[in-house]
Write a structure and sequence with these properties.
Blueprint lengths: L2 H23 L16 E7 L8 H15 L4 E6 L10 H7 L4 E4 L23 H10 L2 H9 L4 E8 L6 E3 L13 E3 L2 H9 L3 E3 L3 H10 L4 E2 L4 H7 L7 E4 L8 E7 H5 L3 H36 L3 E4 L2 H16 L6 H17 L1
Parallel strand pairs: 1-2, 1-3, 6-7, 6-8, 9-11
Antiparallel strand pairs: 3-10, 4-10, 5-8, 5-9
Helix pairs in contact: 2-10, 4-5, 5-12, 6-11, 8-10
Bound molecules: calcium ion.
Length: 353
């Protein structure tokens, strides 16, 4: 076929195709098809444990909401609420379980009072890195244990972000030996807090927004939160100067997005998939945003604000490691879910090393 004939033939084909499409669009041309029923619209309240727009965590929650709103074309509208608007930071779990909100963004180790097993879905001392946690949750049996643990509360949770490896925390003085932890009053959630208590410190959890005032008042004299980007935003450097690494207690903290299971199960399959996929997308996105923000902010903290950056000495890390092994080891006598979760986690970690 000559090139000119080919072009002419293609043009005819296009014209015929266009005529066909036009015929389909003519009124009455497709009478066999029933008129479309308007699909039901859903409105969800999405509460978080973070201040509005907070770096990485609040921005991550906002991205999840935006993805759901965009991908569902408005059929599922998710409205975001910061900590304190509907429930306090540490009240997210109960609020979503009770139906005061349909969805919540937080960290599973905040709820260790309900089961120690929940620590493993966020982070535990000398635990998994961000990519290892994702591997265990998605491919190593973690999600099944998580589902089992949250089911009695009428909840289901998705991994929906990761802070990456955290910093060891902020102290008023140099930490030269494990004895220096005696008498320290530190904000630290989860099993890391148990480790601190074992070495003579006291530990308590509190929402991020409460930490600065607690440092100023002397209720605590040390804290951890996440890493340079977040910690700069909270302004801890104005009260405490020594900034230690690494965060033995949170080597890769998973952030969760929980849903009220009855509300989630009532959604059509495509909207359920949109919620799950929006959360899954945030696993990588939040980590990338943290890595960028941390790199920039560490320089600002040290160069602009004169923060004294220190690495925990090896003997402190060894002592923290020993205390962490003891704390984790005692979970073998905890409730059945915790024992099975710890066994699954430990088998995965041993395989990953
Ligand atoms: Ca932390």
């Amino acid at each position: 076929m000559k090139r000119r004939d080919f072009i002419a033939g293609s043009a005819l084909g296009l014209a015929a195709g266009a005529a066909g499409v036009a015929a389909l669009r003519r009124p009455g041309a497709n009478t066999a098809k029933a008129p479309a029923t308007p699909r039901r619209r859903h409105e969800w309240r999405f509460i978080t444990a973070w201040p509005e727009g907070f770096p990485g965590l609040g921005t991550g929650a906002a991205r999840i909401a935006q993805r759901i709103n965009d991908a569902s074309d408005g059929r599922l509208t998710v409205k975001l609420f910061p900590a304190g608007a509907i429930a306090p930071a540490l009240g997210v779990f109960d609020a979503v379980a009770q139906g005061s909100a349909e969805m919540g963004h937080a960290a599973a180790h905040y709820w260790q009072g309900k089961s120690k097993a929940f620590n493993f879905f966020a982070s535990v001392p000398f635990g998994l890195t961000a990519s290892e946690l994702s591997a265990w949750i998605h491919y190593g049996g973690g999600q099944e244990l998580w589902d089992e643990g949250y089911a009695p509360f009428g909840l289901k949770s998705f991994l929906a972000g990761n802070t990456g490896v955290q910093m060891g925390g902020w102290f008023k003085q140099e930490m030269n030996s494990i004895e220096d932890f005696r008498g320290i009053k530190m904000r630290m959630p989860g099993l890391g807090g148990e480790v601190l208590r074992r070495i003579g410190a006291s530990a308590e959890n509190m929402g991020g927004s409460d930490i600065f005032a607690a440092l100023q008042s002397g209720r605590i004299n040390a804290t951890e939160w996440a890493g340079p980007w977040n910690d700069l935003a909270f302004g801890f450097y104005k009260v405490v100067r020594y900034y230690y690494w690494p965060g033995f207690h949170e080597p890769g903290s998973g952030i969760e997005c929980m849903v009220n299971k009855a509300k989630y199960d009532a959604l059509p399959a495509d909207l359920r998939a949109i919620v799950a996929t929006a959360c899954r997308a945030e696993c990588e996105t939040m980590l990338a945003e943290f890595n960028r923000g941390n790199a920039e902010s560490l320089r600002v903290l040290v160069d602009k604000h004169g923060v004294l950056l220190r690495r925990f000495p090896d003997d402190i890390m060894a002592a923290l490691g020993k205390a962490s092994d003891e704390v984790l080891g005692e979970l073998t006598s905890a409730d059945d879910l915790t024992r099975r979760t710890y066994a699954s986690f430990r088998a995965f970690r041993d395989q990953s090393i």
